[in-house]
Write a structure and sequence with these properties.
The longest helix is centred in the first third of the chain and has 19 residues, at about 5-20. Helix 1 (about 5-20) runs antiparallel to helix 2. By secondary structure, the protein is an alpha+beta fold. The chain starts with a helix and ends in an 8-residue tail after the last strand. About 25% of the residues lie in helices and about 20% in strands. A four-stranded antiparallel beta sheet has the order 1-2-4-3, with helices on one face. The chain is globular.
Length: about 110
Amino acid sequence: EDHYGNILVAVTEAVNNAIQHGNKFDPAKEIEVEYEKKKNSLVFRITDQGQGFDFTTIPDPTDPENLEKINGRGVFLMFKLADKVNFKENGRVVELSFQPEASVGS
């Protein structure tokens, strides 16, 4: 229950990114959202059918030059709100892990 807001925002950002950037709003492409409850964590896996992206080159939204941009905060928020973020398949898959015992953003 304490993590509900973090989970809601992080998963929503991942799904929105998959729709907009991954599938490029193509209604013929699907987004898959899965979750798995493990012993000490809850893991969400969001997969799109896009080409993927280089997640290591995303601009930092906290840089002064990016502060007034209206987008570009989704991945940043995922890293801040989830306990662990893992990109797979060239960025087409993102896994968000939440651990009740862990502190957020560690």
